[in-house]
Specification:
- This protein is an alpha/beta fold.
- The chain has one domain: Alpha/Beta hydrolase fold, catalytic domain (Rossmann fold, 3-Layer(aba) Sandwich), CATH 3.40.50.1820.
- Helices cover 35% and strands 22% of the residues.
- The chain has an eight-stranded mixed beta sheet with strand order 1-2-4-3-5-6-7-8, sandwiched between helices.
- A hairpin with a 2-residue loop joins β1 and β2.
- α2 crosses α3.
- The chain is globular and about 40 Å long.
- This is Serine aminopeptidase S33 domain-containing protein.
- It comes from Acetobacter lovaniensis.
């Protein structure tokens, strides 16, 4: 997984990028938890997501947002971090102009940033949100949400309480053409200490099925 440095809006950003051997492979961008609470691209769940997409044949990148690790700049409360995510996406798309799909996967604060990016980039074809902080941030911007995705919650998560996430899922599922695959692990808290394998299995299952449906829809056109 080669280290990469790419231009961000507030200085250079540090990432790890895997380039698929498959021609026109789909892309995945992985976003880490809150920088002020120790979130980096080396977070255990973030790394697990990265490896899952790699094993599915994607070209995939995880990166440190501004002020984290060797990335330049300072934390910007989420606004600048959305611009960082867009810059990471730009970099991957420049290298992979003929990618067959584009997924974003975020954990905790990274889920909030990822869903903001989803609303700005219509080329995104799928998303993964793990423990989105729905009780702390307003996700009302997802109106309308452009596509369905996978949302995961922990039943014992005090930082991203399951009832708030469940309410968000219910709201998204009322939107036309949107179906959220919602999975709850009752014994999991915010760090998912014993559920990393379950998360990777869920992601692989959801992405495989979603991409199969997308290919079937394209074939029918």
């Amino acid at each position: 997984m080669p280290e990469v440095m790419f231009a961000g809006p507030d200085g250079r950003l540090e990432g790890r990028y895997h380039h698929s051997n498959e021609p026109n492979a789909p892309l995945a961008l992985v976003l880490h938890p809150h920088p002020l609470h120790g979130g980096t691209m080396n977070n255990r769940i973030t790394y697990a997501l990265y490896r899952t997409f790699e094993n599915m044949g994607f070209s995939v990148m995880r990166y440190n947002s501004r002020g984290v690790g060797r990335s330049q700049g300072r934390f910007d409360g989420g606004i600048g971090e959305i611009s960082d995510a867009a810059a990471a996406l730009d970099w991957m798309q420049m290298i992979n102009p003929n990618a067959s799909g584009l997924w974003i996967a975020g954990y905790s604060f990274g889920a909030f940033v990822g869903m903001q990016l989803l609303m700005r980039r219509p080329e995104i074809t799928g998303w993964i949100s793990i423990a989105p902080p729905a009780a702390h941030y307003d996700f009302g911007f997802l109106a309308p949400c452009p596509c369905g995705g996978l949302m995961i919650a922990g039943g014992k998560d005090d930082m991203a309480p399951e009832p708030a996430i469940h309410k968000l899922v219910d709201k998204l599922n009322t939107q036309k053409g949107v179906a959220v695959d919602y999975r709850v692990y009752p014994e999991a808290d915010h760090i998912f200490a014993k559920q990393a394998d379950k998360i990777t299995a869920a992601v692989e299952d959801h992405v495989t099925r979603a991409m199969r449906q997308q290919h079937m829809a394209l074939a029918a056109d």
